[in-house]
UniProtKB/TrEMBL annotation:
Gene3D superfamilies: 4.10.410.60. NCBIfam families: rpmI_bact (TIGR00001). The keyword Heme does not apply. It holds the Pfam family Ribosomal_L35p. Residues 1-28 are annotated as: Disordered. It comes from Moorena producens 3L. The gene is rpmI. One of its GO terms (biological process) is translation. Keywords: Ribonucleoprotein, Ribosomal protein. GO terms for molecular function: structural constituent of ribosome. One of its GO terms (cellular component) is cytosolic large ribosomal subunit. This is Large ribosomal subunit protein bL35. InterPro entries: Ribosomal_bL35, Ribosomal_bL35-like, Ribosomal_bL35_CS, Ribosomal_bL35_sf. The lineage of its organism: Bacteria, Bacillati, Cyanobacteriota, Cyanophyceae, Coleofasciculales. It comes from the Bacteria.
Length: 65
């Protein structure tokens, strides 16, 4: 059986926790930051979990995660 390739774009965006859940960055922290409050930018800096409805699709993209 040949090795499965992982989607490199997904591999750069997601990583697994110790319990097997998938972590991701939050959106809206790339540009147009001047008018956003520092509290909002701080919240956006933290990692969050991928929703369980989307986790199966991410696992398909990353077969060895």
């Amino acid at each position: 059986m040949p090795k499965l390739k992982s989607r490199k774009s997904a591999a750069k965006r997601f990583r697994a926790t110790g319990s097997g859940k998938i972590r991701r960055r939050k959106a809206f922290k790339n540009h147009l930051l001047e008018h956003k409050t520092s509290e909002r930018k701080g919240r956006l800096s933290k990692l969050t979990l991928v929703d369980e409805r989307d986790a199966d699709n991410v696992r398909l993209m990353l077969p060895y995660m």
